[in-house]
Amino acid sequence: MSVSCSSQTSLWVVIPLANEAEVLPELYKRLFQTLDTLDLPTQVMFVDDGSHDASWSILCRFAAQDERIHAVRLSRNFGKEIALTAGLDAVAARDDVACAVVMDADLQDPPEVIVKLLNRWREGHDVVYATRARREGETAFKKFTAAAFYRVMEVLSDTPVPRDTGDFRLLSKRALQALSGLRERRRFMKGLFAWIGYSQAQVCYVREPRAGGHTSWNYGKLWRLAVDGITAFSTVPLRFATWLGVLASLFAFSYGLWVIGKALWLGNNVPGYPSLMAVILFLGGVQLLALGVLGEYIGRIYTESKQRPMYLIAETTRIAAHLLAEGGPPQETKG
Ligand code: UDP
Ligand code: MG
Description:
This protein is α/β, with parallel strands linked by helices. Helix content is about 50%, strand content about 15%.
């Protein structure tokens, strides 16, 4: 199903947000200061990811005042990766898309960078991602853990995920459509963006501090995102568990031979409790670790096998009613 708008194609900006009422007016101002300078029509798709504050009513007001603003409200908070997917699905279902830009609502991704993204797209690239040259206003620990995560991903992932690059990027129409065909539920968008391939280009920018409000990512959520990223794009932890098992059993087997040999030649003089305990605890630890790794993957198979819709839409401002029904992929897009 395709949603027609006009014969002209637009640049679509997709913005997932949760509880961002404080920054929305400033975002609107700064975003359109840039969008108004562009030489192609622009539209914005906000996705309200179950906000509890005034975000939705502000978005409705924007949409009533400005035809270029559209908004979708999810039935509850589904998390940023899913909210972003909902926005990209809503845009991919339209036939007036030239390209789409994904950005955060808190102005940490400066709207001015969109001009640079657009220039690289015009050179013929399908995905233009914005890499953080510097991150302002974030703690040293956050910067350290983020840097460590990107480097671990680099080593483990089968699909190279660009370093220090968030979701802020531009997608061509075909990249957008390829992405909306990937329906896995535990989503690690940075990996999916890389997975689709095509011609990818980079621009650098300085990540600014939040314009207001608070980050909703605590270390628990970031850890879950990191585990999602690694398990979705790498089976190295499974192989690691296997090798750990092989090494531990080799060690245990040799040690067993040594104990038997010693008992045969030198006689058994009973002591051995410390070494016995050491071996039992070591093997127990290795087995639990391996089980944990297996569990992470099996849990993901279980989640996928339930085939639930990824998200549910509660309300929309102006986009087609079919999006209200379910959170599935756009059925079919006609040009
Ligand atoms: N966000 C969302 N759903 C959530 C959490 C965050 O849509 O459950 C949005 C948030 O409003 C913002 C973007 O995702 O537009 C990035 O979130 P945040 O600034 O909290 O993350 P950080 O920049 O600290 O990594
Ligand atoms: Mg932020």
